[in-house]
């Protein structure tokens, strides 16, 4: 297990980067706690895999350092970093049995065969492959092979970190839930530092203690699932987390009120004069249909999602999503929407602005 420090870290795939836009991974300075489980979350191309490969040693950064427990490993080869990495697509030895695939990392380090056998049996039980331990990997399905890759990553107890690069892409949906549960149990039992790359918010929020949200090569927020939901520090976080994501609407901010197309919205805090692109952000969960107060909206459609309804509305060309309970009334004369002031976030140039007591 290790505390991972990213010190002035950045990377460009160009030989002579001239500006910040030339960097796939923009400058990072972060400490990741020893023994914590992190998820790297973001859209494709945002820099997640680049960062993971720098941590693992598969990629040398253009600038900065990476430290494990204070030791500079920036130029250390992967083998010296004592990490285990599981990739998006399965990497297995086809000519070996499942048992020998799982045992390989332990035998490679000279562990006693009695320990190897015990540990392999334990991991096989975790990934549901006890009945195929003596089968060659060559004849197995892609998702079975990926389970072997996961098992091989988890079989060692002494690693500094376990790194997962979208490991459940080829796994069927039911097994995804099972394996995520097993990964969380593994973390709870052994306290490995874990970093899990994904573009799936459900995977990230159910796996990690803290989620690292990346956008355009930059870490825009590190927080618990609750923090990401309640206080998105960047409009991308609000948009990317949640289904549907946060309503982000251009606004004029004046003290304790926001004005959208001239209509006032109460804010839970007060704000000094702000400059730049100003917006408010409100989760659909904190928007409510009303007959007589709030913004006048046009209801476009209502989607029944089982436990709740998603109401798609429009106000002067701005899309507004509202989540209502399954039993909440929705009638033709409910054509206004009001926002809970305590849950209205204010953004300047996409970054959240803390308010002062109103």
* Beta-strand residue percentage: 25-35%
**Strand arrangement, major sheet:** 6-7-8-3-9-10
Question: Mean pLDDT, as a whole number?
Answer: 90
Q: Give a quick account of the main beta sheet: strands, pairing sense, barrel closure.
A: 6 strands, mixed
CATH superfamily of the largest domain: P-loop containing nucleotide triphosphate hydrolases
| pLDDT < 50 stretches | none
Report the CATH architecture of the largest domain. 3-Layer(aba) Sandwich
Number of DSSP E strands = 23
Radius of gyration: 24 Å
What percent of residues adopt helix (DSSP H or I)?
10-25%
Number of helices: 8
Which word captures the global form? globular
Family: Belongs to the ABC transporter superfamily.
Protein name: ABC transporter ATP-binding protein
Keywords: ATP-binding, Cell membrane, Membrane, Nucleotide-binding, Transport
GO molecular function: ABC-type ferric iron transporter activity; ATP binding; ATP hydrolysis activity
């Amino acid at each position: 297990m290790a505390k991972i420090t990213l010190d002035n870290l950045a990377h460009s795939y160009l030989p002579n980067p001239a500006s910040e836009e030339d960097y796939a991974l923009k400058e990072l300075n972060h400490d990741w706690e020893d023994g914590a489980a992190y998820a790297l979350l973001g859209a494709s191309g945002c820099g997640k895999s680049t960062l993971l490969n720098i941590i693992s040693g598969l990629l040398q950064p253009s600038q900065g350092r990476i430290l494990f427990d204070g030791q500079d490993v920036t130029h250390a080869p992967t083998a010296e970093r004592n990490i285990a990495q599981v990739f998006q697509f399965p990497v297995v030895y086809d000519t070996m049995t499942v048992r020998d695939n799982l045992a390989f990392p332990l035998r490679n380090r000279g562990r006693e065969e009695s320990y190897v056998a015990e540990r392999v049996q334990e991991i096989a039980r975790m990934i549901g492959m006890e009945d195929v331990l003596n089968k060659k990997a060559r004849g197995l399905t892609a998702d079975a092979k990926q389970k072997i890759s996961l098992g091989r990553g988890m079989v060692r107890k002494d690693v500094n970190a376990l790194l997962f690069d979208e490991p459940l892409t080829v796994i069927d949906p039911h097994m995804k839930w099972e394996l995520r549960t097993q990964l969380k149990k593994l973390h709870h039992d052994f306290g490995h530092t874990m970093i899990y790359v994904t573009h799936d918010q459900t995977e990230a929020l159910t796996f990690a203690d803290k989620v690292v949200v990346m956008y355009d090569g930059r870490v825009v927020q590190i927080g618990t699932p609750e923090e990401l939901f309640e206080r998105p520090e960047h409009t991308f976080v609000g948009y990317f987390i949640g289904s549907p994501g946060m309503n982000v609407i251009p606004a004029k901010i004046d003290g304790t009120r926001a004005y959208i197309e001239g209509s006032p919205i109460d804010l839970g805090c007060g704000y000094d004069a702000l400059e730049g692109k100003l917006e408010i952000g409100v989760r659909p969960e904190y928007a409510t249909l009303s007959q007589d107060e709030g913004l006048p909206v046009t209801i476009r459609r209502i989607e029944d999602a089982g436990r709740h309804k998603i109401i798609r509305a429009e106000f002067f060309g701005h899309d507004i999503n509202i989540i209502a309970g399954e039993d909440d009334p929705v009638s033709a004369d409910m054509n206004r929407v009001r926002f809970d002031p305590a849950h209205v976030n204010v953004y300047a140039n996409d970054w959240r602005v803390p308010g002062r007591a109103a």
